[in-house]
């Protein structure tokens, strides 16, 4: 039992410390953004599951030590088991409070963003079909195209519509449709919640920031697959202006970096088997 706890804790700590450092290095985000996002979320789930299982075992041992005779927990005396159990509960409490605090802050940000977008609905709004999408066209002199989870849909300003060709507009709509279909706002939220659990780790902050870019690259790739990389790149430039990030995304599309092979897509799916590791450790039939 002690070995299981040690292995689970080591796995959780190793993934928490090393996964952000490894994943933000190199060109993985640019070449294979879906793989990076899958690896990041899989490592988060694996680390969290390993920690919860380790703490759960400690708490269970503490309870057993109080209701069974001392020999029931052969490797731990009842007093030590109780102390470790309370320590495990304290750790869970601290983590829970940090996640709740950050989730509340993010919810407040989301409400403020919704309030800002509500200004658009006070303007002249037309609901109209654009290809396969039913969008809200808003009279506004700034080029804006945005996907909203609540109320769910895509907003297009008249300035954005006028700047883009029909193919470019279709590419942008595919991009925003990807954000909605893949719930990318949730992916960004998960990254920020994970960062709140280990605020002292700079790599976690960089990984949370990288997540925001990665979801844009994934949306770029899907839009390019449906509308052509050239149309997505030109639309980015027209809407993003002189932004350095926009220029890099457009250059990536023109270079063809978005064409991921089936092998990488399979790897992005297979990597979700990682959470089985802590489960195997916890339920391995060895003392």
TrEMBL record:
Gene3D superfamilies named among the record's database cross-references: Metalloproteases ('zincins'), catalytic domain
Cofactor: how and how many bound: Binds 1 zinc ion per subunit.
Residue spans crossing the bilayer: 6-24, 44-67, 79-101, 266-286
Keywords: Hydrolase, Membrane, Metal-binding, Metalloprotease, Protease, Transmembrane, Transmembrane helix, Zinc
Keyword Isomerase among UniProt keywords: no
Signal peptide region: none
GO biological process, one term: proteolysis
Highest taxon of the lineage: Bacteria
Key word Metal-binding present: yes
Cofactor(s) the record lists: Zn(2+)
Family matches, as CDD domains: M56_BlaR1_MecR1_like
Start and end residues of each Peptidase M48 domain: 154-197
UniProt xrefs under InterPro entries: Beta-lactam_resp_regulator, Peptidase_M48
GO molecular function: metal ion binding; metalloendopeptidase activity
Family: Belongs to the peptidase M48 family.
Listed PANTHER family: POSSIBLE SENSOR-TRANSDUCER PROTEIN BLAR (PTHR34978), SLR0241 PROTEIN (PTHR34978:SF3)
Protein name: Peptidase M48 domain-containing protein
């Amino acid at each position: 039992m002690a070995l299981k706890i040690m292995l689970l804790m080591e796995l959780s700590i190793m993934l928490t410390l090393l996964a952000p450092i490894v994943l933000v290095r190199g060109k993985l985000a640019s070449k294979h953004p879906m793989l990076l996002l899958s690896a990041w979320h899989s490592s988060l789930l694996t680390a969290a599951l390993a920690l919860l299982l380790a703490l759960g075992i400690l708490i269970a041992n503490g309870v057993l030590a109080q209701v069974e005779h001392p020999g029931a927990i052969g490797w731990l005396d009842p007093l030590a088991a109780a102390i470790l159990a309370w320590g495990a509960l304290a750790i869970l409490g601290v983590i829970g409070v940090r996640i709740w605090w950050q989730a509340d802050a993010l919810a407040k940000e989301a409400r403020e963003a919704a309030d800002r977008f509500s200004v658009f609905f006070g303007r002249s709004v037309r609901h109209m079909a654009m290809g396969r999408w039913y969008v809200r066209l808003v009279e506004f002199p700034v080029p804006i195209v945005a996907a909203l989870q609540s109320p769910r849909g895509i907003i297009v300003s008249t300035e954005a519509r006028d700047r883009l060709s029909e193919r470019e507009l279709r590419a942008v709509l595919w991009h925003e449709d990807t954000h909605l279909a893949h719930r990318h706002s949730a992916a960004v939220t998960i990254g920020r919640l994970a960062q709140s659990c280990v605020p002292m780790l700079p790599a976690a902050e960089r990984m949370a920031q990288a997540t925001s870019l990665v979801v844009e690259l994934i949306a770029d790739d899907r839009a390019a697959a449906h509308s052509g990389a050239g149309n997505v790149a030109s639309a980015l430039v027209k809407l993003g202006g002189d932004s350095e990030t926009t220029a890099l995304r457009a250059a990536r599309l023109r270079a063809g970096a978005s064409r991921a092979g089936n092998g990488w897509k399979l790897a992005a799916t297979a990597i979700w088997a990682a959470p089985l590791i802590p489960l195997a450790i916890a339920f391995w039939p060895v003392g």
